[in-house]
Model the fold of this input.
Amino acid sequence: MTPPSHLNILIEQFADTLEQTDLCCQERAQFGALLDALRIEATLCQEVLS
Done:
């Protein structure tokens, strides 16, 4: 397993911040989908670079 990239670390920090934010269910779902897409993109970029 490769170490997390700087981008992955930032995405997880953003996710942690969102968990502490008072959002409605719809907003949580939207941000969750965005975070999932960002995680996939970061993983793909990391695979291309390795």
About this structure: The helical segments are 6-19, 25-49. The first helix runs from residue 6 to 19.
